[in-house]
Every structure is written in structure tokens, then in C-alpha cells.
Amino acid sequence: MFYPGSPSALARDLQQMLSHTPPAPGMRAKAIIAPHAGYVYSGPIAASVYAPLAELRERICRVILLGPTHRVAVDGLALPSSRAFATPLGVVELDQEAMASIEPLPQVIVSDAAHALEHSLEVQLPFLQTVLAEFTLLPLAVGRASAAAVAEVLECLWGGDETLIVISSDLSHYLPYALARETDSNTARHIIALDAHLDHQQACGATPVNGLLLAARRHGLQARLIDLRNSGDTAGDRSRVVGYGAFSFSAEPEHAH
């Protein structure tokens, strides 16, 4: 529904979108926020934050992926019981050990229903499969939870340079073009400031985004806005648009002594 089912068509679309993104040398992202609509709408915005990860291709071997639930309401953060996720580009093994390590947390549940029809996590996978080499995945479908509960889970999984955190979220929904631009610019300012008080009108993935912003602040990460557009800029009409933002979070560069 969100991208071509043919492996060759999908690979071609991804290469096309990623090749239109200028490289950002030296940007060693620890975490990113990327949109999750159909690729014709949000793909170019997602590509802007995925393309620079190619530099870390051999280093990142574990991805922690959080996105909001759209179809099934859950309390907490839901793991699937499966051992792998598949896309037309192949199979991604799930990190069983890491999943077991967070399962005792009260806010973590196991729900295959939460993942079965959920697109917010799954549409990120072809991008990850294209820009990274071998990696395992820990997918969490985030339902009703506090920002602190999400941050606690991220803290347990934080890891080092080998672990990338990906938060899947779109921004405003169904506003007229000019109002959406204004609203999304304001939301972007809050994200850059690591202000963990977003609501679901500002970002459908507000819960996982807020959790990341809390954790990013704790770890001294700096946020950068990479791209901010909406469906009126890519493939939709401008009377009702959905906002898309791409953000990257990295440790502040070491100052030379």
C-alpha cells in the first residue's frame, strides 16, 4: 500500500530518492525522526535523513524502531512475538536478546495485533535495508504511554555507536497548506529545542518523539532539522495536507583542546 511490491521497482525508487539527497559528511546520527506515509508523499523527506546513514553502514548493526499505533489501541509499548520482519527487499532478524531484556518492564507488552496491520514501523524498513549493511531490529509499536515510560525503554536499549534509534512520525494532519507550514515550523522548533511536550495534533508519533527528546537531552544530543515539507509539496493537493519532518540527533562534536 505504501511502496511498490516488486523488489526491483522498490530498490529503484529508493535509489532515486536517496541519490537526490546531498551527503552530510561527519554527521554521526545516534537517532533520527522520519515520516511514514506512502513513499510518493513522504519518501523524499525520509530519504534526506536516511542517505547520510550510509556513512555508518558498517558500524550500525542494531536498529531500535518506534512508531505510533494507527489500527490497534494498546497500553504501553508493544513488541511482536515473531523472530523476523520481511519486506520485498528481504528478511530482517529481530534482536531476541534485546527484546527479552526489556520485556520485564511494566510498560512493555507483546502484541502481534498491534504490529499486524501497522505501517508506521514497516515503511522505514526498506530505507534501513538500503542504507545499512547487516542489522538486527527491535520494533516497538507505541500506544498509550508517558514520555518518561518511552525514555526508560530507550535508556535500556541505548547502546553505543552500533545502535541507531529511529522514531517514525508524521507532523500535522489535514490542515490547509499555509497553516500546516506554520504549524510544522513551530513543531520543528520544539523538537530542535528538545522540548518533550508535543501533542498528537503536532505529530502523530508524539509519544515516541517525546520519549526520544527526553533521552536525547539526558545524553547531551543535539537535534538538527534536515527537511521539512508536506504532501502539498510532493504529491497532494494543498487544501488538506500532511506534514513531514526529518530530524537527526547526534552527540555534540568533541571540542579540540
Description:
The chain is α/β, with parallel strands linked by helices and 257 residues long. It has ten helices and eleven strands. The strands form two sheets. Strands 1, 2, 3, 6, 7, 8, 9, 10 and 11 form a nine-stranded mixed sheet that branches. Strands 4-5 form a two-stranded antiparallel ribbon. Strand 4 and strand 5 form a beta hairpin. The longest helix is centred in the C-terminal third of the chain and has 16 residues, at 177-192. The chain starts with 6 loop residues before the first helix and ends in a 6-residue tail after the last strand. The model has no long low-confidence stretch (mean pLDDT 95).
Structure, briefly:
The chain contains ten helices and eleven strands. With 257 residues, it is an alpha/beta fold.
List key phrases describing it.
single chain; 257 residues; alpha/beta; nine-stranded mixed β-sheet
Please work out how many helical segments DSSP would assign. 10
User: Which structural category fits the helices and strands?
Assistant: alpha/beta
Number of DSSP strand runs: 11
Order of helices and strands: HEHEEEEHEHHHEHEEHHEHE
Unreliable residue runs: none
What share of residues is helical?
A: 25-40%
Estimate the strand proportion. 15-25%
Shape: globular
